[in-house]
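User: I've been going back and forth on whether these two constructs are worth ordering. Before I decide, could you fold them both?

Assistant: Sure. I'll take them in the order you sent them. The first construct and its C-alpha cells:
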Amino acid sequence: MRIKSIGQKTPGLIVCAGILLVIAVWLAGQIAGRTGVTDPRVRMVSVTTAEVARSKQQQRYQAVQRVMEGEVATTAERVQEATGLALAASLLVASELGQGRAPASADHLAAALLQRGMLPGFSSGQQPGAVVTSHGTFVIRYRRAPIGIEVVSLGNNREAGPAILIRMPGDERENDSGIWLTQSLDEIAIPRPFASSAEVIAAGWTPDALPPIQ
C-alpha cells in the first residue's frame, strides 16, 4: 500500500485525527443500540390439548426463524459489517494523520486495511476501493480534505435487503453522520460521494431507517 507523506505533523492533522476517533466511538454506540443481537426465547404455555401446544410451539419456532434468517436480520448484519469497515477505515486514517501521512486514495485505504488484518471476513473486490463478504460488496469512499469516509453496501440479492450508506462526516456544516438505507430494493440510485443530505434523500435514501430487532 502506498501511504502519501503530507509533511510534518500539524495541529490541524491532530485535530482531524481526534475528530475521527470521537466520531468512531459515537457511531459504534449508535449502531450497537440499533442492531444489537437479541436472545429470542420461546415461552411455553401450558394448555390442555397436546396438539394445540405443539402447534403453538411450532409457530413460535417459525417466527424466530424468520427473524433470525429473514431480510431484517441480514440487513442488520450488513449494517454491522459496513459500520465495522467505516470504523476501521477511520481509525487507520486517524493513525496515519497522527504520523503526518495519509492514504492516497480509497483503493490504497482498502488495501492497507486488508494487509494489516483489520477486516476479518472481508476480501478484495474487483472495483477500486471495494471489499466483499458473503453478504455483498462494500465500497469505501475517502475524501482527504476535509476528511470524510463513506461506505456503500450493496447486497448480493433482494433477500439481502436494501443498499446501505454509512457516513463519517468531514464537513462541520452538516450533521448527517449515521445510517442511510434505500427505500427501494430494485431501483437504486447511488448518490455521488459525500453528497448533501438533501441530495441523498432526493435519490431515494432514508436516514436512520433501520428498526431494532426485538
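The second construct, handled the same way:
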Amino acid sequence: MATKPERPAASSAESRNGAAKQQRSERRLRRGSSEKADWSNADPNELFRAIVAVTGQNCAVQFGYTTDGGSFVVRIVGDGEPYNEYIRPTEDLSLFLNALSMDFEK
C-alpha cells in the first residue's frame, strides 16, 4: 500500500514558507521545466510596444514573477478590474507580448 511522503511539521511561518517553496520547485521539475522566468530574455522591442499600447489606453502594466520565480506575471490595471496574466518560461514570451500589444492598440 502506498503511503504519503511525510512533510516537515509546519510549526512556524518560516517552515511553512520553506515547505511551500520546496513544493513549488518540485512541481516545476515534474512539469518538465526547471527553467526560471527571466525578463532579460524578452525582446526589448516587443516589451516596449506592449508598454506603449497598454499605457496608450490609460491603463497601467506591471511586470514581475510568481513567488517561486517559475513564471512571468503581467498585471493590467485600469481596464475594469485589475487582472494578472501568467506566462511559463517554456511559452513564447514574444508571442504573448505581441498579442498584448494588439489587444490594446487603438
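Notes on the second construct follow. The mean pLDDT is 83. Residues 34-104 form one domain.
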